[in-house]
């Protein structure tokens, strides 16, 4: 492609409403233009990248034996009523009335449509197992669309749905998709982790999220380098600590006139933060609750909400705190509340001895506190904290590390939920009607583009993994049209690289070199060759990889060898 | 692809609600499944064909220098207000409210969005000319969706929009697109015509429709074999006839007791139908109108509506006819109306002498009628009829032929309409702001699949042009799993054809041969090889082209030569 015949439109200013770097860079590189909130046009440059992702996803899905079809974007309400999701899906479901006043939605996902397809098409066990996939435009009416295509309303998704006669067969296909996803993200050149997302009702590891690692990621991922173990911090189990030690200190009331946080109290008293306990006051359907966590731990609300009577809770306000504990926040604790409360202790807290708590009196804490002796045993002992770096991994493989990630894929064992709700049945080998088991497997195709940028960028712009780059090589021509030899050399190299099947773009727009180089770096082309009159005179070409600090002067043969070696 | 690992689901019965053969065959072949009125899932088989069409369209658009992007399906109301089309587009526009009560539509076309994109992106003449295209899902809320994907509500379209500084530049790109479309439909292997659709305000040939020829087509196309001339019958000009002859017969009242139509009257009187004149009674904004046509001609309502005072008209009812002409329908004519009427004569009628008309008296006609002598000259003389086979072509190239066609593409010179309405401007070389000229170029990608079937089918099913076939060759295995040599030979041939880059499908489902052959013919695979124990014994393979009457026995080498020669 010659850039003079393409449409490249880079922007210098960082757009005001772009909060994250991928959104900023996609707008600055001119990959994306906003049409409305959460709705974007993919420019020719952006689309080149999107199609690369799409092609790799398609190839690997085909290789894994999944079969592509194409379902409509507009789906009738009746199907969603069958699964109860017309109501339950919530505000993200974009509902539509046609001219005949029939109700539809713009599909945010296709479980209903594929299950309807399956109940009409799949009649016999001989047709199973089967895995259908599509790469198709979806719409979710996000209440706060932002971050560009990271959380757009209209987006491109690969979704796949498999059907099986037995859970074992589903588990095999689940593993097959897990492996396919691993190949996809590996081929895309992304650093990623398959994160255990739930150890839910269906058993085993029924759900994994595939996350692209990036400091800006919304999800915190706990993983063990020693094993494949990885889980969202919200989901990762904090292993039970060892047994509780016997009390060694006497209970002591200490003045902490201005020290309200565990860190301040620990500093004042000269004790380890891990010897302090913070009390988080909550109000739930079962009344006033104190959740107790080690001073260096964070509450995990998802884990807490799984305890009886705590499905719904909120932070207590100051009046409620004073009413139940007799103290202002900052000095509260589980000992001698003014009114009956529920005590929920994290497992680490339940195993502590000689610890520090608030005294329920302004300006005071208690130290040398021990369960049983100074306090009643807690009402609930449970894992209610987030794991943190250095904790032991739940699989026993060693210390956890924490990274941030962006979810770009999800594999899920749905079981019989949709098939049962919609009455999909197949005859087994004995001629008996059976409800099939389903898996579903999604990849956010457009989201991957943004995630890749979050992971791969620098001050100059995007640094595409080569599998996603719009072109592998940019030829930058200094002063085209003014020196014939330069133009000829550029055209010859362009033709030669194309002849080798290498995707090359020729920047013949006639910009001055600074602006040209800035554009090529911004849009992230992995390799750059500069052709100038001065270079030609020496028989050398200036070559630079996007991730190299400096350029090198190479002769033609060296150049071709380098480019061939570095292109996919 | 092995069919045992694919999802093929053919149906024997012709579905009740499928009115046309392409819809019937697409459902029977299992290419399509209905989700809701005018909304279809493309099954794996259907999608293979759709993607072939899409790929050829994309390749030729790229080759023609157009640049692909991807615009959203959901478009904000504000843009459509700018062009006035939010109201004017009519009921086909599917209007949507999101959770914040903002209004959108599901894009039925993208002039507004691309013009908005252009006004933000295109600032200088240096960026022009440019032609953007996309292949994208659209929705038109048809009041009566039918004929499957021929007139679906959700459909796949290629739309392109070009921008130019001058009308001359637009005209060049128009021709470029015309040529690209010609290559596309030629490569698809379809018989088609580029039909002049309008000779409107912009001048020259501002609009062409590309129609696939098929007896079932909705459009009647007049064309001249001697030249490239082709036009929709509604648009084709009927050339002016020669000068009017002098009267030779006397006016005569003749009894036609039961003869009401021109054909009946002509038969009774023994005159040529072309000597009779039919009177069509209409009511328009300018009152009661008689449109006069030769007995063998058909009224062209589009042409008629272009006359002054006739933009809106309807057929007169019997009471109005009696009131103005004093006679019941069947015997009416332009002579001596009871009340003042407007006479509109087709040019052929105005050139007639000694003709036959109704006498405005039940049971009577007049013969030997002549303009001037027996009748006042008509108020309007114009081309108000459809051309018919044998008429002279408007380009003077000889006699017209009439064929039926299905519109699958449209190229159009929009001029400045959208750019002006939306304030898109670019600076010219002199730094002066100019409103660009636009062209738009559409192809109904999903519709092409149906149109190809309308053109290419027989009693057994679809006969795909090879460029559109889901696979080029089907290997039918008789009794797989029972004779190892048969399985091995099939697998070896399958691998060898794949090695040659030929798309081959192996029917290893184990059906009996009749059912297997019926399926392969129904889904339209161009070439078939049968591998059976008996054939193997003789070293011969049974080969049959889908369009051949019989199969032939070939040895392996002959077979490979034949298949290679017949595959794209």
From TrEMBL, chains A, B:
**Quaternary structure note:** Homodimer.
**Family of this protein:** Belongs to the class-II aminoacyl-tRNA synthetase family. ProS type 1 subfamily.
Q: Which CDD domains match?
A: ProRS-INS (cd04334), ProRS_anticodon_short (cd00861), ProRS_core_prok (cd00779)
Keyword tags: Aminoacyl-tRNA synthetase, ATP-binding, Cytoplasm, Ligase, Nucleotide-binding, Protein biosynthesis
All copies of domain Aminoacyl-transfer RNA synthetases class-II family profile, residue ranges? 38-470
Give the GO biological process terms. prolyl-tRNA aminoacylation
This chain's protein is named Proline--tRNA ligase
Q: What's its catalytic activity?
A: tRNA(Pro) + L-proline + ATP = L-prolyl-tRNA(Pro) + AMP + diphosphate
The entry's function note states: Catalyzes the attachment of proline to tRNA(Pro) in a two-step reaction: proline is first activated by ATP to form Pro-AMP and then transferred to the acceptor end of tRNA(Pro). As ProRS can inadvertently accommodate and process non-cognate amino acids such as alanine and cysteine, to avoid such errors it has two additional distinct editing activities against alanine. One activity is designated as 'pretransfer' editing and involves the tRNA(Pro)-independent hydrolysis of activated Ala-AMP.
**HAMAP family, alphabetically?**
Pro_tRNA_synth_type1 (MF_01569)
Q: Which residues form the signal peptide?
A: none
Checking PANTHER family in the record gives: MITOCHONDRIAL RIBOSOME PROTEIN L39/PROLYL-TRNA LIGASE FAMILY MEMBER, PROLINE--TRNA LIGASE
| Superkingdom of this protein's organism | Bacteria
Looking at the UniProt record for this protein, which Gene Ontology cellular component terms does it annotate, in alphabetical order? cytosol
Molecular function (Gene Ontology), one example? aminoacyl-tRNA deacylase activity
Q: What is known of its domains?
A: Consists of three domains: the N-terminal catalytic domain, the editing domain and the C-terminal anticodon-binding domain.
Species this chain originates from: Metallibacterium scheffleri
Subcellular location(s): the record lists: Cytoplasm
Q: What is its EC number?
A: 6.1.1.15
């Amino acid at each position: 492609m010659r850039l003079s015949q393409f449409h490249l439109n880079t922007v210098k200013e960082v757009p005001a409403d772009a909060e994250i770097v991928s959104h900023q860079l996609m707008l600055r590189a001119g990959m994306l233009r906003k049409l409305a909130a959460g709705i974007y046009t993919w420019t020719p440059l952006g689309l080149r990248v999107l199609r690369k992702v799409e092609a790799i996803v398609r190839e690997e899905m085909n290789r894994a034996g999944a079969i592509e079809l194409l379902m409509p974007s507009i789906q009738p309400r009746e199907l969603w009523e069958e699964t109860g999701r017309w109501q339950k899906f919530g505000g993200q479901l974009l509902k539509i009335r046609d001219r005949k006043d029939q109700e539809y939605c713009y599909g945010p996902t296709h479980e209903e449509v594929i299950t309807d397809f399956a109940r009409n098409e799949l009649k016999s066990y001989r047709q199973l197992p089967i895995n259908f996939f599509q790469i198709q435009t979806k719409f979710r009416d996000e209440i706060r669309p932002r971050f560009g295509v990271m959380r757009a309303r209209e987006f491109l998704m690969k979704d796949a749905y498999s059907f099986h006669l037995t859970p074992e067969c589903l588990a095999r296909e689940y593993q097959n998709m897990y492996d396919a996803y691993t190949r996809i993200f590996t081929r895309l050149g992304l650093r990623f982790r398959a994160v255990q997302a739930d150890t839910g009702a269906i058993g085993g590891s029924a759900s994994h999220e595939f996350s692209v690692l990036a400091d800006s990621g919304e999800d915190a991922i706990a993983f063990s380098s020693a094993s494949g173990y990885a889980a969202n911090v919200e989901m990762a189990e904090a292993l039970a600590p060892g047994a509780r030690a016997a009390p060694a200190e006497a209970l002591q009331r200490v003045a902490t006139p201005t020290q309200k946080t565990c860190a301040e109290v620990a500093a004042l008293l000269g004790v380890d933060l891990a010897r302090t306990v913070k009390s988080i006051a909550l109000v739930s359907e079962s009344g006033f609750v104190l959740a107790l966590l080690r001073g260096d731990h964070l509450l995990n609300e998802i884990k807490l909400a799984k305890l009886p009577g705590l499905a719904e809770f909120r932070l207590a306000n100051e009046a409620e705190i004073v009413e139940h504990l007799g103290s202002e926040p900052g000095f509260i604790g589980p000992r001698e509340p003014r009114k009956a409360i529920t005590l929920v202790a994290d497992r680490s807290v339940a195993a502590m001895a000689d610890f520090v708590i608030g005294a329920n009196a302004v300006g005071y804490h208690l130290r040398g506190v021990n369960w049983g002796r100074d306090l009643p045993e807690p009402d609930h002992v449970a894992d209610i904290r987030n794991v943190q770096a250095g904790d032991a991994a739940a699989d026993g493989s060693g210390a956890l590390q924490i990274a941030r990630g962006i979810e770009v894929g999800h594999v899920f064992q749905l079981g019989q939920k949709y098939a049962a709700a919609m009455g999909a049945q197949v005859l087994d080998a004995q001629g008996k009607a059976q409800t099939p088991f389903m898996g579903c497997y999604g990849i956010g195709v457009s989201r991957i583009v943004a995630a890749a940028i979050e992971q791969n960028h620098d001050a100059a712009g995007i640094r595409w993994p080569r599998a996603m780059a719009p072109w592998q090589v940019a030829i930058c021509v200094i002063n085209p049209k003014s020196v014939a030899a330069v133009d000829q050399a550029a055209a010859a190299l362009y033709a030669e690289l194309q002849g080798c099947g290498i995707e090359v773009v020729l920047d013949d727009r006639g910009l001055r070199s600074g602006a040209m180089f800035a554009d090529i770096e911004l849009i992230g082309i992995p390799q750059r060759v500069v052709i100038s009159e001065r270079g030609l005179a020496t028989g050398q070409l200036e070559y630079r990889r996007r991730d190299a600090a400096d350029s090198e002067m190479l002769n033609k043969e060296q150049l071709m060898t380098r480019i061939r070696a570095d292109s996919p």
